[in-house]
Amino acid sequence: MAAKRFIRGLTSPWSLGFSGFGLAYGLYHIWDSTQSGTKYDLYEDLAGKTYIVTGATSGIGQATAEELAKRNARVIMACRNRDKCVQVRRDIVLSTRNKQVYCRQCDLEDFDSIRAFVQKLSKGKFELDRIDGVVHNAATMSGERQVNKEGIEKTLAVNHLGSFLLTGLIMEKLLAQTNPVRIVFLNSNVIDRNCDINFDDLNAEHMKKYDGYDVYKHSKLAAALFARELSDRTKGTNVSVLVADPGRTKSNLSAQMDGQTFFLSRWLLKIVSFGMGERRTEKAVRPVLYALADPETAGESGIFIDRERKSQPWNEVVLDNLKREKLWNISEAWTHFAAHLKQLKEDLGEAASAMSDSPEAASTITRTKTWKTLWL
């Protein structure tokens, strides 16, 4: 009798339910462990160092900002939505007990906003005494073609041109420092999938039907071309450039795409992404931290780090010197770089002159011919 009751207990709905839950959780844990990649942690104490992270209110950008704050760094969250940034910043401060986390508005599709951001961190009460790293994380993907106030397609503006302008306007400040600086671009292996730079339709004006994913893919290729060219131009300076691929990651990047607007297709995409090894942001941030602050990557430049933190080869398009130079020249023209630089110099006034005339800047300029020949 007791044996029958025991068997009935084992086969009861509650028992089967708990057993099924335990089995499912165990399988998920095994799957998650295999998708997370090899174990890694950054053990460096980053006290006294300053890092700028774009797009730091969600996804990998938020995870990067929090991981840096945990290691006592000063973190500048460069974000489009200041209200959202304030909320995320509060959570990071409470979690890490590091109050040196700051919100600064910087909308990468708005070139005036980028110049204002650089101006604030170069002069006045928000001036930074040093910058040790810049993480170009912000990215967007849209289901329909939109343009910024300059008439430039927004995906290209945010994913490449905004980073180009921000880097160019801040470069003189970086070169004037004595400490090493790492500029890290987040990218993806999607640029290896039947992808080339289309100079005839860089602004996505002549597509028969706007394809948000295709435009996104080409904008990331443009960013990779820029990163590789920048690494070549900064050789012999205190600035190094690295590209990190976090792998397929859970994020809201594709939230505006057509497939995400319908309930059923959204869940089907989640199932597909799960099966393809989508990683959580706390795991995906590992190659970013490795590129940004790990002693092993000190002095490295011009490398493309994969999700396992190993150097992977560039594709042929990125290695094409003529395409890199052509894109660089177009980027200067479309961002009105010279005009923004001139306006920044006028706004900074004496601060800009002092930065250019410092002994550290003079030493750097000697090593790189001149800052203007490096960029322009």
UniProtKB/TrEMBL annotation:
Provide an example Pfam family for this protein. Answer: adh_short
Q: Does the keyword Oxidoreductase apply?
A: yes
Q: Which SUPFAM superfamilies match?
A: NAD(P)-binding Rossmann-fold domains
Q: Which InterPro entries match?
A: NAD(P)-bd_dom_sf, SDR_fam
- Give a yes or no for keyword Lipid metabolism in this entry: no
Q: Which Gene3D superfamilies match?
A: NAD(P)-binding Rossmann-like Domain
Q: Which CDD domains match?
A: retinol-DH_like_SDR_c_like
- Organism domain of life: Eukaryota
Q: Which GO terms describe its molecular function?
A: oxidoreductase activity
- Show the stretches that span the lipid bilayer: none
Keyword set, alphabetical order: Oxidoreductase
PANTHER family annotated for this entry?
PHOSPHATIDYLINOSITOL-GLYCAN BIOSYNTHESIS CLASS F PROTEIN-RELATED, RETINOL DEHYDROGENASE 13
* Protein name in the entry: Uncharacterized protein
Organism in which the protein naturally occurs = Caenorhabditis auriculariae
